[in-house]
Amino acid sequence: MSSKESVIPGNAVRDADYQQHLEALQRTGECPFDEGVWQRLTPPEHIIHIAGGWVLKHALVPYKGAAAHLLMFPTRHITTPAEFNDQDKLIAWELLDV
């Protein structure tokens, strides 16, 4: 199991199937946003754009009633925005314009 800090918040569960999915990830120590993991979990049609080590994609389990539920994340493991470098900040803003 990985020693990485989990990035899965306790309030992320929206239904029983999704809860099982998140629990399985936590048991393996995988972060759903890390390189290799997100590709395995994401259907290609959910990917909107990839640039500079960042991904913009549709959520696997969107919030009910949401017109769109998108995720934007770096592919290297970070747990807080305080870890963003200047390049991350630029790319994140560029993804908002896709």
List the helices and strands and how they pair.
Elements (H helix, E strand, L loop, with lengths): L15 H13 L8 H5 L5 E5 L2 E5 L11 E5 L11 H10 L3
Antiparallel strand pairs: 1-2, 2-3
What features would you describe in this structure?
Strands 1-2-3 form a three-stranded antiparallel beta sheet, covered by helices on one side. It is built from three helices and three strands, in the order ααβββα. Strand 1 and strand 2 form a beta hairpin. The mean pLDDT is 83. It has 98 residues and is an alpha+beta fold. The termini are far apart.
Brief rundown of the structure:
By secondary structure, the chain is of the alpha+beta class. The protein contains three helices and three strands. A hairpin with a 2-residue loop joins strand 1 (47-51) and strand 2.
